[in-house]
Amino acid sequence: MASGAVSVGEGAVSMAEAGADRRRIIRIMPVEFGYGPLGKALHVARAIRSLVGDLVRIELVASANFRSPVDGGLFDASMSSIAAAARADAVVTMMNVKGIAAAAARGEKVYVVDSLAWLWDEPLPIRDLIHAYFYQDLPVLPVPVRNIAGMPNATAIAAIGRLPADVRNASQTSTESRLDGGTVVSLSGIEAPGSRLGWGALAYPPYILEALEHLVESGRLDATRLALFGNTTVLRHFAGSRLSPALREGSQGEFGTVARSAGSVVCPPGLTTIVECLRSGVSLKLLPPQNYSQVKLMKAFSGPAGIPAMSWGGAIEPWLQQATLPEPVGAEIVRGVISNARLANRHADPDALMALLEQESPVLDSSAVDSLIGPGDGALAVAERVLTDLLG
What is the pLDDT of residue 190? Predict the structure, then answer.
């Protein structure tokens, strides 16, 4: 963190502490579901820093369940509650409906970043609580007009996400951080399960990890040439002894370093990771989906972009890709598919997984990337608007 930064753990920065710092406060509150919202929070914070440096105070609201170390100096403070925090001048949330309500009740100006507006059945119930609504509107994922109806200052933005430049911990050598020609597997969709750390969130990691374990045990995959990213607590619990040496710390910075050096990432079809890799010239191979949005994302990206993808198997996935379902219904079906597999002690097919790992994956040029996710930098657009409102 920057000089004078405060890490508050279970509490919050006191009003007296924040009051001594006369800078305007921008508080960032991602919803605690998967890596995507937290990843976007980091990208928006970097964009703010790139524009104004330390002229503003940036705070992160995230519980201890968020296991992704962040760049030093990115946040001036982190907290798990805003109950005792000083009033923020601007609150930027990533689909955090409860956080939006809490900030609005404090009279704070709330800006919302929504990356799933294309998926909802109706607008989020936040119209009367927010100042501005940013929604990712991508060529491959157009947003229905109904989902932005009535939203104040609704603004379409480009995709958010570009892997950070080469970042290493001081204790790491260049060789340890890089993985030239190796295999990078990211289960980052369960990077930050938060309040949803239940059976549904815990069924997917062993579904993939046990298949990887079989490949290592059979000598088909070299564990020393493997890097595993995700929620470190969850991965340590489920990863067997053969996979333990492959576990990485899970930070966005280290992931960027390793992914760029390997040139390819194997991951579930989570939108933020897909965008990060596409924008950074890293090819992708898609694991089976973890949730309903990822079912739709796999269809959207594997076909037009030619990205290799691995199915669960059976008829349910193609049916879900074509079906038009309310998001909660689709989510429940996906949870059931994965949970039933685990209850039956099944894991992903090692042969299918090995075939995916060995498949060539295209690196898309900038025009092909723009045709999928549009040109521009959504994080920069959000940062510019917030700072214009705040500083003039």
Answer: 46
What pLDDT digit, counting tens, does each position of 87-108 carry? Answer: 999 999 998 999 999 999 999 9
CA distances (Å), origin 251, targets 117, 124, 237, 292, 309: 27, 30, 18, 25, 25
Radius of gyration of the CA atoms of the chain, in A: 20
Q: What is the dihedral sign for C-alpha 37, 42, 45, 51?
A: negative
What's the token pair of residue 292? Answer: 């309903």
Residues 6+ apart with CB under 8 A from 299: 321
Could you tell me if 371 and 300 are in contact, meaning their C-beta atoms sit under 8 angstroms apart? Answer: no
**Would you state the pLDDT for residue 162?**
87
**pLDDT (0 to 100) of residue 251:** 78
Closest CA to 283 of 299, 247, 257, 259: 259
Q: Residue ranges per domain, the chain? A: 6-161+377-391, 174-373
Report how far Cα 362 is from the mean position of its chain's Cα atoms: 22
What is the DSSP code string of 192-229? --GGG-SHHHHHHHHHHHHHHHHHHHTTSS-GGGEEEE
Where does 6-161+377-391 sit in CATH, by number? 3.40.50
Q: Do 6-161+377-391 and 174-373 agree at the fold level?
A: yes
* Nearest alpha-carbon partner for 212 in 228, 199, 201, 188: 228
Rounded Cα gap, residues 237 and 247, in angstroms: 11
Q: How far is CA 135 from CA 86, 238, 280, in A?
A: 28, 36, 22
Distances 286 to 99, 245, 258, 352, 366 between C-alpha atoms, Å:
32, 23, 18, 12, 20
Q: Minimal CA–CA distance to 150: which of 118, 126, 117, 115? A: 126
Q: Domain spanning 174-373: which CATH class is it, in words?
A: alpha beta
- Give per-residue pLDDT as tens, 224-258: 999 998 877 778 888 888 998 898 876 788 888 89
Residues of the chain falling short of pLDDT 70:
1-19, 64-72, 166-177, 188-201, 250
